Each structure stands twice: as C-alpha cells, then as structure tokens.
Amino acid sequence: MTSRKPQLRIGLIGTGFMGKTHVFGFAAASRVFDLPYDIVLHSVADRTDELAVAAARGLGFAKSSGDWRRLVADGEIDVIDITTPNALHKEIALAAISAGKHVYCEKPLTAWASDAREMADAAEAAGVKTQVGFNYLCNPMMALARDLIASGELGEIRLYRGIHAEDYMMDPASPFTFRHDPAGGGALADIGSHALATAEYLLGPIARVMGDCVTVYDRRPDGHGGFRAVEVDDVGRAFLRFTNGASGSIEASWISTGRKMQHDFEIHGTKGALFFTQERFNELHFYSMADAAGRRGFRRIEAGPDHDPYGRFCVAPGHQLGFNDLKTIEVARFLDCLAGKRPEPFNFRAGARVQALVEAIHDSSRRSQWVEIP
Amino acid sequence: MTSRKPQLRIGLIGTGFMGKTHVFGFAAASRVFDLPYDIVLHSVADRTDELAVAAARGLGFAKSSGDWRRLVADGEIDVIDITTPNALHKEIALAAISAGKHVYCEKPLTAWASDAREMADAAEAAGVKTQVGFNYLCNPMMALARDLIASGELGEIRLYRGIHAEDYMMDPASPFTFRHDPAGGGALADIGSHALATAEYLLGPIARVMGDCVTVYDRRPDGHGGFRAVEVDDVGRAFLRFTNGASGSIEASWISTGRKMQHDFEIHGTKGALFFTQERFNELHFYSMADAAGRRGFRRIEAGPDHDPYGRFCVAPGHQLGFNDLKTIEVARFLDCLAGKRPEPFNFRAGARVQALVEAIHDSSRRSQWVEIP
Amino acid sequence: MTSRKPQLRIGLIGTGFMGKTHVFGFAAASRVFDLPYDIVLHSVADRTDELAVAAARGLGFAKSSGDWRRLVADGEIDVIDITTPNALHKEIALAAISAGKHVYCEKPLTAWASDAREMADAAEAAGVKTQVGFNYLCNPMMALARDLIASGELGEIRLYRGIHAEDYMMDPASPFTFRHDPAGGGALADIGSHALATAEYLLGPIARVMGDCVTVYDRRPDGHGGFRAVEVDDVGRAFLRFTNGASGSIEASWISTGRKMQHDFEIHGTKGALFFTQERFNELHFYSMADAAGRRGFRRIEAGPDHDPYGRFCVAPGHQLGFNDLKTIEVARFLDCLAGKRPEPFNFRAGARVQALVEAIHDSSRRSQWVEIP
Amino acid sequence: MTSRKPQLRIGLIGTGFMGKTHVFGFAAASRVFDLPYDIVLHSVADRTDELAVAAARGLGFAKSSGDWRRLVADGEIDVIDITTPNALHKEIALAAISAGKHVYCEKPLTAWASDAREMADAAEAAGVKTQVGFNYLCNPMMALARDLIASGELGEIRLYRGIHAEDYMMDPASPFTFRHDPAGGGALADIGSHALATAEYLLGPIARVMGDCVTVYDRRPDGHGGFRAVEVDDVGRAFLRFTNGASGSIEASWISTGRKMQHDFEIHGTKGALFFTQERFNELHFYSMADAAGRRGFRRIEAGPDHDPYGRFCVAPGHQLGFNDLKTIEVARFLDCLAGKRPEPFNFRAGARVQALVEAIHDSSRRSQWVEIP
Prior knowledge:
Four copies of one chain form a homotetramer.
Chain A: E1 7-13, H1 17-32, E2 38-45, H2 49-59, E3 63-65, H3 68-73, E4 79-82, H4 89-98, E5 102-105, H5 113-126, E6 130-132, H6 140-150, E7 157-165, H7 187-203, E8 206-214, E9 219-221, E10 227-229, E11 235-242, E12 247-253, E13 262-269, E14 272-277, E15 283-288, E16 298-302, H8 310-313, H9 323-338, H10 348-367, E17 371-372
Parallel strand pairs in A: 1-2, 1-4, 2-3, 4-5, 5-6, 7-12
Antiparallel strand pairs in A: 7-13, 8-11, 8-17, 9-10, 11-12, 13-14, 14-15, 15-16
Helix pairs in contact in A: 1-9, 4-5, 5-10, 6-7, 7-10
C-alpha cells in the first residue's frame, strides 16, 4: 500500500497478549482513522531469535531479533513499543529514549514512582514523546464527561467517588502471580491505578490522600504444593482532596464477587452531576439543574457520532464501541501527538503521577496519616 | 373527631380483599389529604346478618346488614361502594343510582360493555357521580406523562406501545377460576383493561383495533379431579389507531414467566418520547429533542413533591409511593369530584369504554378484521 | 370498634410532620396487620393547651395537654411516643421511663452518644421497651439481605460499601437550621446514621473507623440578612472494620446534586454478592457463585409475598411498597415486641450505638486516626 | 506474512461504507481468530477504473477493475463480496455463482423474496457457499439465548416479543432516499428484517403473520425543492405464530424518537424467560423458575469468555464487544463454513426467508388478513 504519508516504523518488544493487542490496535487504527502516518511493522523482539522469528511471522513484522537492544539501536525505527513484563519497562524505555525513539509502553509504567519519574525526566530531556496504555481514558464518554465539567455545565465540582472493582482474585486458591509481588503489585496498583487516572483526568490534581489498604488473603498457593506469603492489598481505598477544592474517594478491589468491570465514577457539582459505569461504557448519565423543575433526572446519554471519535467507528449512534476499540483510539492519539496535532495524551509524566498516587496511598495506609502529593 | 366539614356517609357492599382495601383507602385518604368531607363509615353489607355484623366490627362501620338493598334504601347513605364479585356490580349499581346515591365500583365494571353502558346512562340520567377503580391512573407519574403530552413537549404523538404482563396464570395446573369465565374473563379483560385505560388516558380515544387473542391452556383443573375447558385468552394483543392519528399496539398476558407488574408504555412524538414501567412506577423516562445535541438521552425523573399529589405523602422527593397509596389517591379524587372540585376521574362511562375496547379486540380477533370503536 | 384484644394507649408528644406520620402509622398498622393490641389514641401534648386541643381534634386523640409531663404522669397511658425536636428527646424519654412507660422515639435519638446511652441504661434498668425510628430497616428486602447473609448464601463476607446521599442541602443559599447545629447536626448524623445502622444491621458490629468529614459550605444565611458559621459536615466518609473481619466504607452527603434517596449498599462474600439502592427499594440484586458458569449474573429480586411482611400489604408480587408503608411496619414491630412476640427491633441501645459510631467518625476525622468502637 | 494455511482470495465489489467495513472485518478476523485461511485482498471493483485504482490503494487490494464482471471472471478469486447498492445484488451474485464463487453479500439480499429465492436456488444448485450480513446474530449473547432455549432451561416457549426501533427517519424534512423506494424499502424491510431474523434464529420458523404497516410521512423532500410521495412504511408491526406453537409479535420503526438501537426481545417459556436489548448487547437477562422461591429474578448475565467467541477478543469478562466486533465474528464464521468446519450461518436461503416474511407482513397489512408463510 503506497501513499504520500510519512512512514512511522514500529519496533515492538514483547509478544504476549498485550503485544498482540497493540499490533491489533495498529492495524485497526489505520483503517478506522485518517492517521498522519503509514504504520510500518518494522521489527519485533522476543527472548530468543527463534521466538522472534515466529512472532514476526505471526504478527506481520518485517524483521525480528532475540535481543531487544538491536531494535533500540536500529536507526530506522521511530517508535519503541514496550509490552514486556513490567520489570523490564524501565531499562528498555531509558535505552530507547537515549536512542531518540518515541516510546509507547503498557501500564503500569513501573513498580515505583521514582523509576517512573526518572523515565519521564529522561523523555522530556530528550524531547521524545511517550504514552502509557490507560485505555479507559480513550472512551468518547470519558471525553464527554470532561467536556461537561470544563464547560461549567456541572458548576463547581464538590464531590467525587471512583471505583474499580473486579473479582479475578476472589478465589483464595488462585495462585501467587507477579501481581502479588510487593514491587508494584496489589489491587490498588493493578486496577486502582485506573480509578486514580480517571479521577485526575476529570477533576485535575489530587492534593492529598488518606489510604486504607487491606490484605484479605495473606497467602496464596505457590504452584509447588506450598504457599507464599502475600503482602499486597486485595482492596485499597482512599479519601481524596483535589486541588480544585473537591473532596472524594476511590476504591479498588479484585475480590468483588460478581463484578467484572465496575469502573464507576459519580461527580457532583453545584449545577449538575455525572454517573458512569464501565459496565456500560457507551453511556454517560448526566443530571442538570438547568432542566425545568419537575422534569429533572439523570439523563442516559448514549455514545454516538456527536461524541468524537465514535463516528470513526460507526455512522449511527447507539451501536456501541467495544473494549478493543478503546485501544485503537489510544494508538491513533499517540500518532496524532507524534505529528504535533495534539499534546501527549497520557505520557510518562502522567504515568509517574499515577504511581506516585498509588505509593502515597500505600504509605498513608501504613502510617494511618494523610499524605500530601508532591 | 369533629370538624366543620360536611359528612360523607359510606355504604360498603362487599367485604373481601377489595372491601378491606377500600376501607383502608378511606382511612388513609382522610389523613393524607385535606378532604372536602369527613368520611363516615356508615353501613356495611354482607351475605348474612352475622357476616355483616362481624365485618362492621372488623372494618369499623357503625351499622350492618345481611341485605345490600337495605343500604341502597337508607336515606342517610351518600355513597354506595361496590366491591362484590363482578357479577353483582350491575344490579347493585343500578339500584343505587335509582336511589340517588353516588357509586364507587371496583373494576372491571361489568362483563359486557352493553351492561356498562346501561349503568353509565343511568348514572348520567340520575345526575349522580361514579368512579371505577383503575388505580394505576392515579400515579403522579402518569399525570406527569399526560402533562408532558398536553404541554406539547413531545410534539405530535406518532407511536404508542403498551404492555401489561404478569405470570399469575403461567402454571397450567392452577385451577379454573371466575377469571377464566367467558363472561368477562381472560387476560385482556383482566389486565389488558389496564393497558387500554392507560393508552386512552394518555393519547385520547382509540378509533379502531385489530386483535390477536390466544388461548394457550385450553383447559384447567376444575378442583374436583377433572378439567374444565377454557375459552378465554391467556394473551391478547391489538394493533391500535388513535383518533389523533397515532398508531400503536397493546399486549396483555398473564403467563409471562418472571413478570410481576410489567405495565409499560412507550410513546414517541415529533419532539420527544416517554418510557414508563409500573415495575418502577415512581419513575418516568423522558427524552427531549430540546436538549442540546450530544447531551440528549432518556431522563429518569423520580417522583417528588413537584408531582402532585406526591407531596401529600412525603415532603422529600425520591422516597417513593407504594401500590396502596395509589388507592388512597383514588379515594381522594372521588371525594374532590363529589365536592365539585374536579371532574369525574374515571367514571362509569370510562369504564364502559374500556369494556367496549376489550370486546372490540375479542371480536376483531375472532373475525381477523379491523373493528371500529363506536 | 370493639374486640377482645387488650388496648394499647398511646400518648403522643410532638405534633409536627413526624407526629402526623406516626399517627398515620398507628392507623395503617391496625388495618394492615393483625396486631396484638387495639391502639387507642389516648392523649396528645403540644406547647400550649390551645395547640394541643387542636392537635387532638385533627389527629383523633381523645385528650390533650399543653404540658407533656401530664401525659408521662397519666397512669392510663402505656406508650409515650416522642416526635418533638431532638433537643427534648432525652428529658421526655427519661421521665417516661421513670414512669414505667414504653417509649417510641424518632431518630436521631440524641445529639450525643453519652445521652443516648444514659437513656438506654435507664430503659433497661426499668424494664421498659423502646424503639427508635430507623424505618429503612423495616423494608422486607433488607430482611432478605440479612437472611441471605445469615444463611451462608454469600459465604464469608469480605467487603461492604454503604452510601446515603441526597441533595437537600446542596444550595448554599439554603438557611442555617437545627440540622447545622454542632449538637448532633451534619450530614453524617442526619443521614449517615442510616448508612451506619444498615451496615451493622447486615454485617454486625463495626470495630473501628477512620473518618473524613468535610464542611463544604462554612456559612449559611441566618434568616436575618446575615450569615451564621457552619461547623458540621456536608459530607462524611469512613473506612470501616467489622468484628467479623470484613472491611468497608460508608459515605454520607446532603449536597449530592441529583440524588434524592441514594441509600445504597454493596456486599461481597466468598460465594456471592448483594447490591441494593433505596432509589428502588422494592428490589434486591443478588449474585450467586452457585449458579452455573456462563449463567451467573446479578439477579433482580422483586419484593413479593415471599418476603414478609410484604404480603400483608398486597397479595401479588411486584406491586411495591411505599415509603410510608415502612413506617407502618415499624409500628407493627414495636407492638409485636411489646407483646413479647419478638425482640426489640431497633431499641435505644441500638440508637445509642449509631450515635457512638457517628461520634467516633467525627473524632477520627478531627484527629486523622483510626478510632476503636467500644 | 507467510504460513501453511491455504489462501482465500477475496474480490470485493462495492467500496462505500459497507465495503470498508468488510475489509476491516477481514483484517480484524485474521488477528482475532485462528482462521482456516490466509485472507488475500485480491481485487476490488468500482464504477470506473480510476475509482477502483484509488480504492485498491486505500483498502489494500492488489488489483482493481472498473468492471465487476472482470472479478467474477477471474479464476484466482475464491469469494465475491458484494457491498454495492442493493439493486445490483442479484445480478452480481448470480454471475458469481455461475462462475463457481462463494458469495458474501450485505443485507438486505434483494428487494423481493422471489429474487432472493432465485439466488438461493442458484447457489445450492452450484454448490457454493453464501452469507448475508445479519451481524446482530453473531453476538455471543444471542448464541447464549439460543442455547438456553435449546437446553430446555426455558421450558416450552410460549411467547415472543421483538422490536427494532430507531429514529433516523423521524424528521419529516429528511429527504427521500433509496430506503423509501417501494422496491424493498421501508422500516420493516430495513430494520424489521433484523427483528424477524432474530425471531426465527431463536424460536424457529414463523408459520403465519398478521401485519400492520403505517406510512406516517407520505411525502419527503425530493432534494430539488419539491416533494416525492412515500408509500413505504415508517412503522411495521406483526402478530406472529411460530411452528413450535408459540405466539408473538414484532415491531419495526425508524421514527421512534430517542431510540438508537432498540433491538429488543423478550421470550417467555414454561420454566423461564429472557430479556435482551441491543442497547446493551453485552448483557442477557435470564429468569429461571429453577431458582428458589423468594430468590428468583431476572439475572443480568454479562458477556465473557464463557460465551464463545468473546474470549477471542478479550480474556476477561465484562469488558464488552463493540458493534464492529460482530462483523469480525461474521467474517470468521463464513471462513469456518467455507472450510467445512460449520454449516452456513446465515445463507441466501435464510436471507430469502427474511424477505419472504417481510413481504408476507406487507401483504397481510394491505389485505388485513392473516398470511401463511410457505
């Protein structure tokens, strides 16, 4: 396929589930959006040459390597896309930044906020663009929520309540995994990070937190007939103060029996309110005091072409985007940002910010004290 | 309790479940509303003197009789309230009307529209006031729906869809009852009458109908080890044409497994729409094209003091009325009508109208032809 | 109305909105339930003789007095029913208890837990029965929730989330009222008390709390053209630890724009989950791991005769109780308790408990420390 | 990209919105599913050579032609994919079938059932495989609904109610389009066809129908300052009898203000019930009499990996598929069918069947008589 668009050559490092999802996002974005670049699947790296060759064939990359450093050093590559296990994120990202590459990295960025800040500092110093994969923020209804706040239709924001609850760790017999590792693990870090990212996306910076993190199951099967101690939280809660004066709370849990995607928020302002649940993420519920008395109520707004970029996917309202479509939007946003058409959507600085919030809540919970966010 | 209000002396005929409900409504209405009358429970009639004495004691009536004609003849009584089996409605009502009493009668008014018309004619000729117990129409949200239509907020009405579905006859082993009697029985007569009353309450007269009535279980246990043939419908449907030009449909079913109170309607106009379900009857869902593009959606309006007479029951919105409260409103409306403060809310003429619609649908179904409503 | 039942003679003190509601509850309960007593509206007290005479006439009491002490001293009265302003609750209740009367008192019992404990101690020492008006707990669906927990159908309870949010104080121009008085005022005391009562009703005792109380509007119009400083919370939050090992949170707010009755809870156990909102209080949502894989989901259970005492109000399921019906149930429970047919449902001891929780959360919030509940 | 899979070479005819959607489906399906073929975008045809060249470049096809007959004649092409205006479907499809190609064609298959039958006859005679794009049937929750019926979990099916309502023609000022042409136009043909396809997918063949088709706006702007008469229905309703003995109804409307995707069904059997709305198409509501008394209710089942092929898109439940994902599933099903791994999912015979139902309803409505389906 030839065109006049400049090429954007991708080097993918990591070929697991998220690697495939990213490649799917690249493919879909180029069909759904009028992208500023032609995406070229240039190279893929895996742990060995053999695995990399197979991945290149399966995913459609032209070249491959068993050594990720080869991709970072390759002058033809424009973007390094990192979907490796979390522990490798920092080293790869810093190397890529040094080599002047733009970097797209899956969440969570790192286990520790200090590492994430180091990465953000490096990217800013090098002048490269970055993106972390907080794809729920790519939902057109999330943008609508932010628009309704920014337009003043809710008045001054007073209250916020955020939740991210699922049940994938509810079974105490499910084994110890990297998600149970103190280095960045736990419900708060794993999915509470989404709740925190959403809270700041909508209301702006959180100023301080009071945390409440609970380990419900303090050991998990180690996969070898024994048990391994678990220190991370199964549920994490926090009271919040925003710099805009609003107060609120968030809660994260991975043992909430029956809940599969309860990423909810409710926001109350002086003139209106919003309610949202990711369980039905093509809807936003909006209450407006501007409606006539006796006719007020939460209005179920269904996503449609009025809510950009829904119309890219479907010309008719109410047909609904899917989870994978949010990833497609995420890819398109990064390319627009690389072309200078929009600011970085959720960059390493933002990723570091979320990690800092998670650490502050953990710290607060340990010390039973309010903790200021720097 | 003394006061300056005139007294309204009630003579109740029929002391079963509905009789008790009416007495409850009289008692509640006098506490909830500022009624134009002091209600006096004057006399009650039952099948024998002994039963009547017991009923008087239990329900709080001053006098009693084993012969309902004694109540009709009693010059002290202002209102005859009929909650007997349906087959007796006509004879009692006509006698009461002849004696110059106002008449309050449970639904269905009669088995046949011609009988109901005779009763309505008699009442009008005698100049007495009448009411039939279609209590769903007393819901403040139903009034709100009618106001939204009357105000033009929905524009011109184009479409109507009404349902009344429950499952109390879903078990083929449940025995033959008076509700299975061809004289006025069947799902359409029993609960479809509600759907028809609601349709005309909201959109005005139905001009013609095409019916589809189905007997799913053509026999029921007779209670003596045998079976009795069933001819009435378990489900009745109709296409509708309203005189205002709208088209629509209603459906009634008493074999709709899992549905307990699916009395729903959906109305589409040129400027807006309404959705309602009796399953959540303190809510009305309103869609308005007057809302800004991108912010439109069905608005869940919760009942509150803005929706008269909700405020009589509770000063705070969202607290919700119950089923029995609708009966209380019905009683109050009749008293207001007797005092000349409002027109008859749902009188014998309206009750006859509903019977005529039911008969027209049955007739249409039998003949597979559209039937004009006189 | 005569019967063989013993009489229960009521002395009502306080004739405002809640006084009327109680009288309505007495009247309705005697018609809905088969009560163990004939309720006699014996005497009513108001601030002056004239007001009391008018109240007696309006509410149907036989006698009246401008001095509540006359009722307490009247040997014919069995129950003192207190619906006065909160500040008078303690003095009247202690006098009534001294006189050997049973006491039914509106919520909140007192401004301070120590006062409430004194009242509970006195009642227990005197052997009289007491009840505080937490009527949301009288909902049949609340009982169903407790049954599902007690039966083990949810497994071991791990998580709790409770909310009570309304918007009746959202307008900063709404004036200072007794609800803004530091002695027992604020959102947490006013409606958070409901959230706390529900939490303990369902999960048992709370062991410790961490509070977060926020005054959003620190002054309110004083009604004389000036302003009065407000110290009480507009929103109160708390992290919770239950003695059964579960953790959770509650939130109370009276500035939640658009919310009229968001008294919600969500409970997660090892085998199932519950979700409830008072906005639709005739429904309970139940998730069970016992359902087959691929067929699990939150089940919307509609209230019906299976859920006692719903059947007392209506023989058919799905017809829905209203807010006032919960008061009727509350009255009936107290009478059953007085007749020895059931334990005290929500007595002064329970009322004192709720006050203690409110105070502990306030205290915790001030000190930013976890506070143990005695 | 090389692999051992056989190639499947696509010839696409029609490059408008649906053409792009199909190409997107081909691309996505090969990444989401383990397809039996490598899809090769071989050739594309458009109205002129120039347009075709541009389309090939934009959509990624290797070759192009301004004459669709060249593709039909090309021996290298395995599948002809038709997304042209409806009027061309028949001629192209018959030519493709004659040439021994498999044919994938957008809905509606043709304007008239007799044409569709001719196409189905030809395909069967030639032994080629066909598919029509009824993509709502590709929803995993639709398959779950069918499984619940087939497994007997609903018992014997008694009642069906189907709706497909949108509002894209609600504005009388929206101009006359091909959808208003009597040859296959109208709400019933355009979207009622979905309601009919769903009804038969779930309950099996419809035996007879009674129709009610209404033209609400009998003229539309012709785009040249005048008006053009409209004869097709804006709303089409039908009573239904299924060969399994159930009765039911469907309704189609494109003037239902506020409704964007109200493709709903409700099914009642002797042991359970289902409710579904395409507005929230990742959910199915299931009521089972097998649940214990007092714990029954409609269960909101959320789509997840238990519901094949959801797991191909996402490993976690509750994340939700989007509208375009249904097209991806449709493509995969056709390839599986071509590989002999499953029967034809919705072939020309099925497409002809839907057209026959639409025509029967139109015919019935005109004649006001029940019409048997052959």
